[in-house]
Design brief:
heterodimer; A: mainly alpha; B: mainly alpha
Chain lengths: 316, 292
């Protein structure tokens, strides 16, 4: 890989200085590959190879431990998924989660960012408080909230007070309310991260734009719609996309919060819970890999949609 | 619209100008602060309570009073039952190696991409960006297979090695190095310093904010990992904190006080780090989204 011939094609500006230049380039090339090698090898072994394997396995009946030889079975794993009600159910659960989390968490994050962007005393204290749950790892957050969401827990105590005892579901044992509980915990833990990204964006919007807008007589709301939102468009799209992708990756909460992982009655079983169940618990690597590949395609599509929106911005 | 002279200022000072609005703002922020903080207060208070009282007290504000106070009994119980020191050290070892080695290899890679001339640079940059898209979850099953083939299940290395090189962190370093003025490096090179020396003596010290960002993000991600250690560890020997908590679920009795003590001990290190390095944390997270 370090071999370089004299007709190197890398676009190096400057006049050609045949002899010396060629030698220096060779040396720099060598150094560059030394710099690249450690991470490069790791990326190759732990991302590129497993990804190729995932694609390969998805066409076979590979199992983790099996006396039977591995066989090529074509698209059977994929057709198997497409006709498996549980697979669709898990995707549906991801969708249910995303439909609530993505718009609400993004709007909430923006609201918080606008709040702590006000020039008032104590805003750093509030910013710190809003961000604190991000430092609580999900396993801990889920554990705390399991107690809070207990049928006799603090959340219900508060709800009974507000609704005079009319509303106190058994959150984590209810097929209806388990997912909303997961949504609430996810927002509690994650929204501070998005808030900070949007806050940084807000602070980058040039102040003159606001001045110009207010001279034109725009109200605060109009300024927000016509100056702030366009000004943070890219970061907003970024936040929407990562929140959507993270919603597809949902795993920890449905594993840890309900009494049985993905429960009750599979109402919080997500694509990732399903994949680990098939590929790991049932050791069906071929099937698990097919889910992984489908999952990758979904994430890829989401990312391409984001790129597309970002590019349009650049052209305008 | 109804523009009075006083509201002819930017959004933020408009709020400052109006005292009623300012109090509304504070009220909203306090309510939100309660939402973010009460679970943590509840956790802390409950960790000093008798196990049965944790839920029993949850129907009133008694939930926030450490009564009956049992001192550190829950902590000693949790430490014994969950082999806390062991699990904690596992987390420290795993996250430490991932973050430490990651800083070195990812910054070297990012620097080569940003500054050194070599063949195939454009292709490699494109590949790194493509790799960012691949979510780890899509690799977990074949990686498990690879790990099992080489007999690495229940080891540290299988929890460390896959996460050292990180395309996102390479990209963050790459964009940071692009922004550093070239003149300093060129001066050092004219003085005859080798590229490696230029990197360690000139570039790396300038890139402290980038290193801090990647260290913080890497630590946040690795400390909380749950999916992968669930798949590749069975006993507590090499298990990290988030998986270690499972002991309380699988073995009766359910001791809520112990569980809360465990989560306090799991959360506190990161919380303290955050409170100390607050500004760096916030800047670090902010820069992860800068590029859109």
């Amino acid at each position: 890989m370090t071999a370089v011939d004299s007709t190197r094609t890398t676009a190096g500006p400057g006049p050609p200085q045949p002899q010396k230049r060629g030698e220096a380039d060779r040396a720099e090339n060598r150094v560059a590959w030394l710099f690249l090698a450690p991470a490069g090898i790791l990326l190759l072994v732990f991302i590129v190879v497993p990804f190729a394997l995932a694609v390969g396995f998805s066409f076979t009946n590979q199992r983790l431990i099996s006396p039977l030889p591995t066989k090529f079975i074509g698209l059977d794993n994929y057709f198997g998924q497409l006709t498996d009600g549980m697979f669709w159910k898990s995707l549906w659960n991801n969708t249910r989660f995303a439909v609530f989390v993505v718009p609400f968490q993004t709007a909430f994050a923006l609201f918080l960012a606008v709040l702590v962007n006000q020039k008032i005393k104590g805003r750093v204290v509030f910013r710190t408080i809003f961000f604190t749950p991000v430092t609580v790892v999900m396993a801990a957050a889920a554990t705390i909230w399991v107690l809070l969401f207990n049928a006799d827990g603090l959340v219900n105590a508060g709800l009974e007070l507000i609704t005079f005892g009319h509303f106190s579901p058994d959150w984590l044992n209810s097929t209806v309310w388990a997912m909303p509980a997961v949504v609430i915990v996810s927002i509690w833990q994650g929204v501070g991260f998005q808030m900070i990204i949007l806050l940084a964006a807000l602070q980058d919007v040039p102040g003159e734009l606001y001045e110009a807008a207010s001279i034109d007589g725009a109200s605060t709301w109009e300024q927000f719609m016509n100056v702030t939102l366009p000004g943070i468009r890219n970061q907003l799209i970024f936040v929407l996309t990562i929140t959507t992708i993270l919603a597809m990756r949902l795993f920890d909460q449905p594993m840890l919060m309900p009494t049985s992982p993905g429960g009750p009655l599979d109402s919080t079983r997500t694509a990732m819970v399903h994949m680990v169940d098939i590929g790991y618990s049932r050791q069906n690597i071929g099937r698990g890999s097919a889910i992984a590949v489908i999952f990758f395609v979904i994430v890829l599509v989401l990312t391409l949609i984001q790129r597309r929106f970002l590019r349009e911005e650049g052209e305008v | 619209m109804t523009t009075t002279k006083s509201s002819r200022s930017d959004v933020s000072s408009g709020v400052r100008a109006n005292p009623v609005w300012r109090w509304v703002l504070y009220a909203v922020m306090v309510v939100l602060a309660v939402f973010f903080v009460f679970p943590l207060v509840y956790m802390l208070v409950s960790s000093f309570k008798a196990d049965q009282q944790v839920l029993a007290n949850s129907d009133s504000l008694k939930a926030f009073l450490p009564q009956p106070f049992v001192g550190f009994e829950n902590y000693t119980d949790a430490i014994d039952r969950a082999h806390f020191p062991r699990v904690f050290m596992n987390s420290v070892i795993i996250s430490g190696f991932i973050v430490g080695l990651g800083l070195v290899v990812n910054s070297l890679f990012g620097y080569a991409l940003a500054r050194l001339r070599f063949r195939g640079k454009k292709l490699i940059l494109a590949m790194v960006i493509a790799l960012i898209i691949i979510p780890f979850e899509a690799l977990a099953v074949p990686l498990l297979y690879m790990g099992a083939e080489v007999g690495w299940l229940d080891t540290y290395q299988i929890q460390i090695l896959p996460f050292i090189a990180n395309p996102l962190f390479i990209f963050l370093f790459y964009t940071f190095f692009l922004g550093i003025p070239k003149s300093l490096e060129e001066a050092a090179r004219i003085d005859g310093a080798s590229p490696m020396k230029v990197f360690w003596k000139v570039v790396a010290p300038l890139a402290k904010p980038a290193y801090a960002t990647v260290a913080i993000l890497g630590f946040l991600f690795s400390w909380g990992q749950y999916l992968w250690p669930t798949m590749v560890t069975r006993g507590i020997d090499v298990r990290p904190l988030p998986v270690g908590i499972g002991v309380f679920k699988t073995q009766p009795p359910v001791a809520n006080g112990d569980i809360m003590a465990y989560t306090v001990m799991m959360t506190l290190p990161l919380l303290i780090l955050f409170l100390i390095f607050q500004r760096q944390f916030v800047q670090g997270v902010a820069s992860s989204g800068v590029k859109g």
